[in-house]
User: What shape does this take?
Amino acid sequence: MHSKKWIILFLVFIIPGMLLTASCSKKMVKTDGMPVAGDSGAAGDAGAIDEGSLAGDRSGLLDEEGLTPEQRRARDAFLNEHIYFEFDSDVLSAEAQATLMRKAEYLQKNPGRRVTIEGHCDERGTTEYNLALGDRRALSVKKYLENLGVAASRMTPVSYGEEQPIDPGHTEAAWAQNRRAQFIFN
Assistant: This one.
């Protein structure tokens, strides 16, 4: 009789307790081909990554957009590297051409990306003239990228003229920053 109580006690308390403990263990989360132990038990930490299991290697971590740190750096470099022009010109300098070669390489590696090429000017000149010059700058950049193999259908040129300066100053240094073409993703 005494052994029946132990068996019942074992069946009622010990086995469910073991099952509950096993179900709360850390589960493996696969991130970019690299399994990482993740703790999904805490309410605010759902999917949090156990940093100790990474051993300092964060190259496989994806951000909220699904990009690795390397992909994020390439994207940011693409967006933040502008094409600069001389006063009253839409001619691409050697430096601008080198930048556009890097941008073409990025676009070829990311065939799903579509871009708007924004043409900008400094404040000198009439509004109409600057809109036309900004358009010529954006078209010059688009044509160069087309010659490097980027499909024209992936690029939309637009001119903002003098309306969106990076530097609102009234100096040559400010104007040089504003005479640019820049990219945004569609």
